[in-house]
Amino acid sequence: MAIAGVILIKVIVVFTVLLILAAYMTWMERRVFALVQVRVGPNRVGPAGLLQPIADGIKLMFKETLIPADANKIIFILAPALTLIPALSSIAVIPFGDKVEIFGYQIDLFLADVNIGILYIFALSGLGVYGIVLGSWSSNSKYPLLGGLRSAAQLISYELSLGLSLLGVVMLSETLSLKGIVDAQSEIPFIILQPLGFVLFVICMLAETNRAPFDLPEAESELTGGFHTEYSSMHFAVYFLAEYCNMITLSAVGATFFLGGWRGPFLPPVVWFLIKVIAFMFFFMWLRATTPRLRYDQLMDFGWKILLPVSILNAIVTAGAITFFNL
Amino acid sequence: MFTAIFRGLWLTLKHSWKSRETVQYPEQKESMPIGYRGLHKLLRWEDGLERCVGCKLCSAACPVDCIHVESEENESSSPVSKGERYASVYEINELRCIFCGYCEEACPVGAIVLSNEYEFCADDRSKFLYEKEDFLVKRNEDYPELKNRYPEEKLLTYL
């Protein structure tokens, strides 16, 4: 019973923190953009604009929900949920700290340590593609359809390289579970042993979350909003939240696989974990403020003709090095 | 290709330590240049008499008919203006006004001028009908942007 209670509390805490973090990532994005654009960004709503996400949430709740006349209503309403649920569930296997002792209970700071950890995350991100495709198709409109098709093709192509780029780390730590991978980095973080894998992972992370320079599916200038053109109010908010939750989850995966998870001197583990995740997010936003977006055929070319062979090569070289140096 | 991205990243990062361009209105306000066409003001002469003689040239010049002037004879014992008449009623509908400055160009005595004031919101349309007391300045020096706009020596020849 006590264990059930502990797990329940952990679930509530983790999901609350994740949702609040996703909302405040919008604040951080606007402030980071302003920082590199010599502006100030939101600073009126509450101290330093910190209440801005709440104001945005309230505004979105009060907006009118418009559903296009010939849209498939059931799927139209269901699709954002199909994107949000995998984004939220992936956080369950990510360890965000070492063991802690509260009131005499030993609590592990992750929700579930499945021994197929990273495979679970990939399976869920595969499901996330459904949400985008169904949402765009059920809108019964040109722009969402094109955006959704492009997005689906992009996501599927880059998922392959994403998996392969992590294969090197999996081989080095001999386990798929994320807790095991963090444990295997007790001496050296894997970014030093797998620099190419890290670069590949970062590129695939950008493509998986539809972030610049791979954000053609939601490019406003080309597609007036892509797959979420016809969505308004809370449905749009769910898509938006799903995108930021995805970003946070993949940043957390990146931090776990390459930067040593929650490891670090002096500060408590959870703080280190948050620092690493936010560092990744800052890099996302910095990159978005800098680069122009890739054209769709350039994107697909890059994914299939360059990333996939290079990630396979990375896996082969890592395997060879492990065998020959008996790592 | 990657070097180009890193150079771009460095360029954007460099901007993060430049000072911000944002003007935090209403705590900081940018000053408008000389010649900015804001709210109207009715000026005075050096000795304190009003300049406006109620000639209605501004009303005739106005392209949108937003100025209404009525004039009355000056009492010789206590003249209000330097000429024979003065403006007893001087109304401008600031909502109609397009701030073109034609009234200022038309005025022969340099009475009506457009100052740098641009903050005059109200919550009711009737509050935008400004009367003479809203325009008449207490001293010309209150509006430094209007200094030397209409030198006295040139205009006194009209009277």
**Which range best describes the helical content of chain B: under 10%, 10-25%, 25-40%, 40-55%, 55-70% or over 70%?**
10-25%
Provide mean pLDDT of chain B, rounded.
88
Strands across the major sheet of chain B, in which order? Answer: 2-3-5
CATH architecture annotation name of chain B: 2-Layer Sandwich
By CATH reckoning, the class of chain B would read Alpha Beta
Walk me through what this model shows.
The complex is a heterodimer of chains A (327) and B (159). Chain A has helices spanning 2-36, 52-62, 73-89, 117-138, 142-173, 178-184, 190-193, 195-208, 220-223, 233-258, 269-290, 296-325; strands spanning 100-102, 105-107. The mean pLDDT of chain A is 87. Chain A has one domain (69-325). Chain A is mainly α and 327 residues long. In chain A, strands 1-2 form a two-stranded antiparallel ribbon. Chain B is an alpha+beta fold and 159 residues long. Chain B has a single domain (37-158), classed as 2-Layer Sandwich (Alpha-Beta Plaits), CATH 3.30.70.3270. Chain B is built from 5 helices and 5 strands, in the order αβαββαββαα. In chain B, the strands form 2 sheets. In chain B, strands 2-3-5 form a 3-stranded antiparallel beta sheet. Chain B is elongated, with a radius of gyration of 23 Å. Classes of the chains: A mainly alpha (327), B alpha+beta (159). At the A-B interface, α11 of A face α1 of B.
